[in-house]
Amino acid sequence: MKFNELVFSGVQPTGNLHLGNYLGAIVKFVALQQRYSCIYCVVDLHALTQPLSVWGGPKQLAHNTREVIAAYLAAGINPKQSILFNQSQVHQHAELAWVFNCVARMGWLGRMTQFKDKAGKDRENASVGLFTYPTLMAADILVYRATHVPVGEDQKQHLELTRDIAQKFNNDFAESIAALGAGDAFFPLPEPLIQGPATRVMSLRDGTKKMSKSDPSDYSRINLTDDADAIAQKIRKAKTDPEPLPSEEKGLETRPEADNLVGIYAALANTPKPAVLAQFGGGQFSTFKSALVDLAVAKLGPIGAEMKRLVADAAYIDSVLAEGAARAALLADQTMKSVKDIVGFIRR
Ligand code: TYM
């Protein structure tokens, strides 16, 4: 079965959008618009999987949802071309997730490292939604029968699970799928797109830890809304080692902090890491850091300013969401009707 090429991805509205979200995901979203039809979602249903203290309650959720859309727009996503919306406005995501809850196995979900990390030691107290997070993520992607999914490295395992769910659904319902005239597979096995020098941006305080929204130290990450002074200060204070930068990538292997900063520079400049080392290798770290400050301020400053301007115009953001949700719902409805026929649900 040949599927139409379609890109889908999402970001959670859990606040503190940072450089990792930008370089690992949002920058890729912008570039992919040139080649594919794209659907970009703010996954507000997923935000609820964490304790209320993490996502901040109803007012904060609405603000954070608008802020993610503002980041999409400020980074260069065109809402007339790509579909932008928030997940809760298209009920088919939750509906398909239920079917997938019945396809996925407990053992599969129990192996997910994100669940283990987020639930921590107190698993009994984690929400059921946190455990089934990946089945909703699979539904997000497959309700559009999307074929390509740009994400950071940390989402690779969830994409593998999405493929397992699609495969098991195709196998379990093979007869029904063939009877519907949908060929030998109803769902595609979506490809993760995880490429480039910044698929895993690390904390500025500890090069062995991922840059994350939940790190208690604000100095561990560059937030997309940070102003020029904050960006400069955080880069200047970023942990490094006393050695000068190496001239070859091999020399970064045992130096996680240096490796991270070189990766960030390469991604922001849209150039490979060896080219960055050819320019700065052998020189003082302080020289490299000054160049990184200039580059980061030049690239991120205008995005942060535009985000703030857009967030202040809630009516505009909400109109983008409503229009995107209407376009998304038309597509999701088609898939869901077929899924109901395949499974044997009687429908109107
Ligand atoms: P979220 O909001 O946690 O992350 C959004 C995107 O940012 C990437 N990312 C990073 N990339 C590089 N370095 C980092 N330090 C870093 N931190 C985060 C994530 O990999 C992600 O691409 N589960 C998804 C949300 C989601 C989704 C989907 C994605 C829900 N349904 C369907 C794709 C398709 C997530 O991690 O969101």
Q: What would a concise description of this structure say?
A:
This protein has helices at residues 19-32, 44-47, 52-55, 58-75, 92-101, 106-110, 113-119, 128-142, 156-172, 174-179, 228-237, 256-269, 273-280, 285-311, 314-343; strands spanning 6-11, 37-42, 83-86, 148-150, 191-193.
Based on the model shown, name its key terms.
348 residues; mainly alpha; 3-stranded parallel β-sheet; two-stranded parallel ribbon; 15 helices; globular; binds tryptophanyl-5'AMP
Beta-strand content bin: 5-15%
- Output the radius of gyration: 21 Å
Structural class: mainly alpha
State the share of residues found in helices, binned by percent. 40-55%
Biggest sheet descriptor: 3 strands, parallel
Low-confidence stretches: none
Number of beta-strand segments: 5
Spatial strand order of the main sheet: 1-2-3
Dominant shape: globular
Q: What is the typical, i.e. mean, pLDDT? A: 97
Order of helices and strands: EHEHHHEHHHHEHHEHHHHH
Question: Could you say which small molecules are bound to this protein?
Answer: tryptophanyl-5'AMP
Number of helices: 15
Through-space gap between termini: 28 Å
Task: Tell me what the structure shows.
This protein is mainly alpha-helical. The protein contains 15 helices and 5 strands. It has a 3-stranded parallel beta sheet with strand order 1-2-3. Helix 5 (92-101) packs across helix 15 (314-343) and helix 8 packs across helix 9. The mean pLDDT is 97. The structure holds tryptophanyl-5'AMP. Tryptophanyl-5'AMP binds at residues 8-12, 20-21, 24-25, 43, 46, 137, 140-141, 149, 151-152, 154-155, 158, 199-201, 210-211.
